[in-house]
What does this fold into?
Amino acid sequence: MDGGGETARRLEDVALALRNTQASAETRPVDIPRDVSVADPTEARFLLYVGLFDALVDRALSETSSDEERETQLRRALATAMSAESVLKFERHERQSRADQNELMARMRSREIQMTERWMLPRLREDIDAYRRRIDGLRRVLQEGAR
Amino acid sequence: MTAEVEILAVDWTELVPTGRLEPEEVRRLLARGRAIASASPTGAMPEDLARPERIERLRRSFAVAAARAAVHRFELVVQRDRFERSERDEVATYERHLELHKDVVPPLKLEARALRAEIRKLEAEAQARGIDVDTVEPAIDWRNTLAVDGYEAPRYETPESRKQAAVEFFRRVGKR
It folds into this structure.
């Protein structure tokens, strides 16, 4: 049962490696022929990945010696891939929502900071200067009146 | 002319052993992906399925599940900088906002409030001595000043103030 070759074990390892979100962000472009109709890059990426993973299965299964072994390896790889999918789906949703929220908060605060720095603080300082001049004027008049 | 789609370089290394994808191969992979995705089995595996059919079903399910995981990972990895930047920006604007409204604005508003009170006091004193304050220069166009008379500086809690409040609360409760 457990006698799958290196490649068969790799099928499960490849699925397991999908959980590594600290992988390099380096990407490789793949040209999509003009005559292939895909709705958008997201759909094209998904379909390409499906095709590539199925091709990987082809290579992996070609090295196994029995259907029983193929089924065992596929079951393991599928369980690992499904587990990775649900973890990554949750993490993506969570991180994207948090980033959206952080960006919204930062934008709102930035506007308020700019308003305070560019408008309120100069206005307050101008007011304070005017108040001081007025106080000096009033004190001067009071002192002159007292003489 | 062709469109372009990106996949992670680590996936490329793992899934494209030849290191090259000719247009015809891309066409074939996409067609294969589309056929599998459109006929992707759902639900539990029927018990009476023969082994070759089970294997076929398993391989389709695997390709789709792994592709979904890969797409999620792609987004998580390529957006990693954005996620980190959004955290940093949120913290930086929070700190600057707090600094302004805790350390910069309140002292100025309190100073303005005190000066306005001082003006009112001096004007009342001048009026009491029969001086027409409207003739005293420089005058102030009050409509164009910021209203700060009712301003109170916000009180920000610190870990120490929270601790002290908790101690005082339990002291009061204990007296009953």
The CA atoms of residues 51 and 57 of chain B lie 10 Å apart.
